[in-house]
Structure formats: structure tokens, C-alpha cells
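Is this the right way to post C-alpha cells for a design question? Let me know if I should format differently. Anyway, here goes:
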């Protein structure tokens, strides 16, 4: 399948330029650098005593050349090759990318992106959000999106303070990427300020999209930490953000997004069946001061998740089987991964 089919906004030029008035984006040309191989992988847990949250995370990193990769299955449904607990590739410092999963998901969902970034020289920390993850989720957790950004900031605090990982991280080159509610999460780190009342009005109105069904019968104002919904969660250490199919777009107007002054890459699916393109990805791209927009077609809301094994396709078809049978999830990942490497190198410094 051609790149023009996967990314229909790309012109026939050698380096595609996004058409339209929403944003101007250019894909990197050719390969995004010689990848590092193999990829190291380990896990750790961060405790947030103040908020009574335990945050698991996976760390992905360039491993030493003699590290042996093995096939593992993460989250029970995502096969991937990693070198467990392998030695680090070098003593030099590397840029770090924080990853945030979507609502009800897990840290393995974006393992394809974590591996791709690590193969190209990045450190990657993929965290899991308590109360809004697989096996630990609720309607309250779904709508309380403002609880998520501090998880990433705390993880970053602990990694930078770690005697093992702090010396590996270039603190001047921190980025963040997320899918769906994770897309909101990383935009919040860039300074986006959520308006819960605006989102509630959208879901009560004639333009309500299918995403509103996830939060039916919830009175946001009754949540114990509702006063925290509209706070700023900007983390000045984060220098660039990649948001894939970002959710809760109707919880923001231009004023709420104007504080985001760092480079932002929005990736949206025109066939998104959950967070409708015009109301979310395109809306963000129009209002964010420094956003560029890339579109995907075919591919629905969950095309950004890792490719599943047969068990996943049987028991988790919603996230593992794309609605359009013409979708080549691996090709979508390859193109987004290459673009992500180019974007973060350009904005954070190579």
C-alpha cells in the first residue's frame, strides 16, 4: 500500500506537504537514521505517596551490540522482541520520550512506538495510569483526565533522580507522545488547560460524538478532585509533543490551548470511529499555536496500538482488528514511527 493511500494528505512530491488550512506538515524524507540494535527493556514502579497512586512503567533503550533479543508477549496480546535487562549501548546521554496510553489501555499498547524510538537512539518511558488502565478502570477514571499528566511528571522526576537512569537522560531533550486520552495527557504537559464544563456541554448537545458514551451519567462536578480539572499541568521540561488521535478535543477552546508554545505533532484518523476527526484531531490542530497535522486513512481509532497476536484478535477485537480490512497496521506504524523520529530529532535536537 502506498504512502499516499496511508496518508492521503501527502502530495505527490518527494517530501509530502500537508494540504489544507488546518496546518502545514512535512514528512521526513528517506530513512530517519540508521537504527540502533538491539533494544533493551526493563520495568520499574513509581509510587506517588501524595496521591496514593502506584505507577508501573516500562523503559526502552538502545542496548549494547552484543545484547540478545528474545520474543516476548506484552500485555498478553502484543508480541515484540526485546533484550531484557540488557546493558546500555553507551555511556552518553540520550533524549527521553514519555509515553501515555489511551483510556482503559496499558503501557504495552504503544510498544511498537517505544521500540522504534529506542532503535533510533531514544530512551522511552511508557507509563500506566492507575484508575484508567486495563483491569483497573472506571467511568470516573475515564472522565478524570486531569489525573493523568502528574503521573508523567512524577515518572520524569524519579527517572532524572535515579542513579541508574538519571545519568543516561539528556534533561534538555525531553519529549512526550500519547494516544487518545494519552494524547490529551501529553498536550496538558505542554500547557493545555482543560475546560470540563465545555466538554459537558458538548456531550449534552446536538453535536455529541460517540466518545460521549464513555462518560454517560457522570456528574463531573461531583468528583472529589473536580477543582483540579482546569489547572495547568505544564511541565517546562517537555520540549515537544506527539498526540495520536487525541481525545477530549471539545474540552478546549483557543484560550485553553494558547498556552501550548512548544512544537506539537497531531496525527489523526479521518475514519476515527470514536474521537471524530473534525471534533478532536482537526480541532486541536486548528487551535494550537505551533501544531502540524498528519492524517491517516484507512485506519480507525485503534490503528495506533501495537499489532496483536491471535489471542488478542479473538478476545480484544475492538482494539486489535481494524474496521477497514484494507488497513495495514504495520505500514501505518512504520510511517508514523519514521515521522516521530524525524519530528523529535528536529524539535529536541539530534
Amino acid at each position: 500500500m502506498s504512502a499516499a493511500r496511508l496518508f492521503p494528505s501527502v502530495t505527490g512530491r518527494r517530501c509530502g506537504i500537508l494540504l489544507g488550512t488546518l496546518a502545514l506538515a512535512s514528512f521526513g524524507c528517506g530513512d530517519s537514521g540508521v537504527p540502533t540494535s538491539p533494544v533493551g527493556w526493563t520495568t520499574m514502579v513509581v509510587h506517588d505517596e501524595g496521591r496514593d497512586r502506584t505507577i508501573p512503567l516500562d523503559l526502552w533503550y538502545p542496548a549494547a551490540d552484543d545484547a540478545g533479543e528474545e520474543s516476548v508477549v506484552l500485555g498478553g496480546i502484543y508480541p515484540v522482541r526485546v533484550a531484557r535487562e540488557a546493558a546500555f549501548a553507551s555511556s552518553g546521554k540520550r533524549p527521553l520520550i514519555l509515553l501515555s496510553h489511551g483510556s482503559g489501555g496499558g503501557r504495552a499498547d504503544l510498544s511498537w512506538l517505544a521500540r522504534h524510538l529506542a532503535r533510533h537512539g531514544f530512551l522511552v518511558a511508557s507509563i500506566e495510569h492507575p484508575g484508567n488502565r486495563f483491569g483497573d478502570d472506571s467511568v470516573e477514571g475515564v472522565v478524570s483526565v486531569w489525573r493523568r499528566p502528574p503521573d508523567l511528571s512524577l515518572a520524569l522526576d524519579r527517572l532524572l533522580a535515579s542513579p541508574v537512569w538519571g545519568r543516561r537522560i539528556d534533561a534538555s531533550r525531553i519529549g512526550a507522545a500519547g494516544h487518545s486520552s494519552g494524547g490529551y495527557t501529553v498536550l496538558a504537559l505542554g500547557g493545555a488547560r482543560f475546560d470540563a464544563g465545555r466538554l459537558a456541554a458538548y456531550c449534552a448537545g446536538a453535536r455529541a460524538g460517540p466518545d460521549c458514551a464513555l462518560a454517560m451519567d457522570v456528574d463531573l462536578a461531583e468528583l472529589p478532585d473536580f477543582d483540579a480539572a482546569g489547572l495547568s499541568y505544564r511541565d517546562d521540561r517537555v520540549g515537544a509533543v506527539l498526540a495520536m488521535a487525541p481525545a477530549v478535543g471539545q474540552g478546549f477552546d483557543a484560550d485553553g490551548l494558547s498556552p501550548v508554545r512548544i512544537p506539537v505533532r497531531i496525527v489523526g484518523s479521518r475514519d476515527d470511529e470514536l474521537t471524530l476527526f473534525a471534533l478532536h484531531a482537526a480541532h486541536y490542530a486548528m487551535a494550537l499555536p505551533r501544531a502540524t497535522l498528519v492524517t491517516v486513512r484507512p485506519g480507525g481509532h485503534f490503528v495506533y496500538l501495537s499489532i496483536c497476536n491471535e489471542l488478542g484478535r479473538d478476545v480484544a477485537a475492538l482494539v486489535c482488528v481494524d474496521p477497514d480490512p484494507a488497513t495495514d497496521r504495520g505500514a501505518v506504524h512504520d510511517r508514523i514511527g519514521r515521522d516521530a523520529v524525524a519530528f523529535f530529532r528536529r524539535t529536541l535536537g539530534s
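Format looks fine. Someone answered above. Worth noting: The chain has one domain: 32-348. The domain at 32-348 is CATH 3.40.50.1820 (Rossmann fold).
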